[in-house]
Amino acid sequence: MMVPGRSLGDYLREWRQRRHLSQLEFALEAEISQRHLSFIESGRALPSREMLIHLAERLGVPLRERNPMLLAAGFAPVFPERSLEDPALAPARRAIDIILKGHEPFPALAIDRHWTLVAANDAVAPLLSGVADVALLKPPVNVLRLSLHPDGLAPHIFNLPEWRAHLLERLRQQIIATGDPVLSDLLKELSAYPAPAAHRPSSPDRDYAGIAVPLELITDAGRLSFISTTTIFGTPVDITLAELAIESLFPADQATAEALKEMAAVARSS
Predict the structure, then answer these.
(1) How far does the chain reach from its first CA to its final CA, in angstroms?
(2) What is the pLDDT of residue 209?
């Protein structure tokens, strides 16, 4: 959203400083002269639309934040934001559904930039049966809040201190990358939840050779262990797609894989 009174130079300077780059470092990165960059930041020169988009790309500015920069420079926004229900995004929505369904019997879900649940496959619901506060399951569902809330999944996460630290650090990195104030407020909320008990070490057969931080969830089917991956759309030019991610959970051991297959078989038969 464009802030009244902010110039293009203000936006560029903020994002350059957020990336911890001096004018000289960024000028070298963007392959322009430091003098030219200084003139743009001071308002003494106005870049072309192509140059502005180039500078935003080199700074890693999110698509959502590039439109205000374009407006500040007197250009029309070029990055649309559509609902996932928009016909123009139908191919993307189909791709999401195919990925989620194809990942079964393992859990997978799609989230937006604020970790709001967009879609999930049928393997997710059985893992949420232990949530005490059903309000956490009412749309819009925030996945991080659901995971770390003391009345959510937190009491059922065997390695909660480790998993909590992983999620909070990931959120901090997202805030650094985007500067999103909603995420900053979410981080404050999650950090204020009661501190988990001391870490319970995994048994030797559950250290996963140190390759990833696992999610170890205590369920009616026993202790299930997962490793996760994140999938994003390549080269999106729509804000909604650029901010969408698919979180896929894979069984970290054979026992978890067999338990998930059994849960899926029971669900199909009933």
Answers:
(1) 48
(2) 45
* Cross-strand partners of 228: 249
CA 245 to CA 110: how far, in whole Å?
Answer: 6
Other beta carbons less than 10 A from residue 37's beta carbon: 23
Look at residues 126, 152, 150, 123 and name the one whose alpha carbon lies nearest to residue 137.
152
Q: Residue 150: how many CB atoms within 10 A of its CB?
A: 12
Distances (CA, A) of 59 to 20, 41, 56: 10, 14, 5
Contact 216, 222 (CB under 8 A): no
Domain boundaries, the chain: 8-73, 87-268
Helices (H), the chain: 8-18, 23-30, 34-42, 49-59, 63-72, 90-102, 143-148, 160-178, 181-191, 239-242, 254-269
- Give the length of the chain: 270
Q: For 79-90, how does the pLDDT look when each residue is reduced to its tens digit (9 = 90+)?
A: 999 999 999 999
Q: How far apart are CA 113 and CA 174, in angstroms?
A: 9
Report helix, strand and coil shares of the chain as percent, to nearest 5.
50, 15, 35
Instruction: Tell me which CATH code domain 87-268 carries.
Output: 3.30.450.180
Q: Quote the tokens at residue 201.
A: 């070490």
From the candidate CATH numbers 1.20.120.450, 3.30.470.20, 1.10.260.40, 2.60.40.60, the one assigned to the domain spanning 8-73: 1.10.260.40
The pTM of the whole model exceeds 0.85: yes
Contact status, residue 246 vs residue 100, Cβ threshold 8 Å: yes
The β-bridge partners of 218 are 223
How many whole angstroms separate alpha carbon 109 and alpha carbon 261? 18
Below-50 pLDDT ranges, the chain? 2, 209
